[in-house]
# Entry
Amino acid sequence: MSFPIHRPRRLRRSALLRKMVRETALAPDDLILPLFVLENAPAGTATPITAMPGCFQQSPDMAVKSAEEAYTAGVPAVILFGLPARKDPTGSGAWAADGAVQTATREIKAKMPEMIVICDTCLCEYTDHGHCGIIKSDTVDNDPTLELLARTAVSQAQAGADMVAPSDMMDGRVAAMRSALDQKGFQDTLIMAYAVKYASSFYGPFREAAECAPSFGDRKTYQMDAANRREALKEAALDIEEGADIIMVKPALPYLDIIRDLHGQFPLPLAAYQVSGEYAQIKCAARAGLVDETNIMLESLLCIKRAGAKMIITYFALDAARVLAG
# Structure
């Protein structure tokens, strides 16, 4: 019998002992802060997002301020989502040189050249129907959409983006973007692919934040089925083959098994997105006095990293960084 020779509790007797033997450590430089940027908004605009307490739709100058706060706290990167002044069937605002994301990218890079700026590369925030591509016969037409996504990626790179992050889940989008970026001289612009993005109910609050709820149907014909695990390996492998530099799983906590699978299977850096529904649940439970917000925030992020994610996109990035640095 192993007892009493083996007593695992010996290693848990004090906080310092637990810290010495801790297998996973969370740090501010693991985090990426999402920001929602309004096109043509008056300077100083920061409109609260009701479904996501503590988050805002911001004018570009306020996005720069938020990015600066995050950078000062040790967060190395932001990911930008745009809210255009006008929407149309093709989402042309996505590649506008003076669009919200492009403007904020230039201003952030001018203020903090070292900070990593990632641009979400999708059309859903910019289309009047809320889907991630061109509509044909009430469904997203994959191949014509690729040209528009590639055009958007080039526009973001021209604005100074360090990374583009295709979140659309169109087949072949990474290859199309890599080819377009390379042809325009942006060989060093990285692609962080939303390689495994599930058609999840956890995105609900984001639809308010980005004003991108589909006007009809849903996104299940292009985002992954929540029941599928092995398909995630196929999706990731395809994006890697097409030239992705970083792969991502979205959402995070409900899909820790997928994060672990990809971490064990592929050598590329792995990101995970702690999405709006995950964030809002913690915020709401904390406001109701049901949980300790700081402790559950840190535990949730630690679990995502323990599963294998090196980078975590989270609306908690600034709060978590400040706690970790303190």
Summary: The first helix runs from residue 15 to 20. The first strand starts at residue 31 and ends at 38.
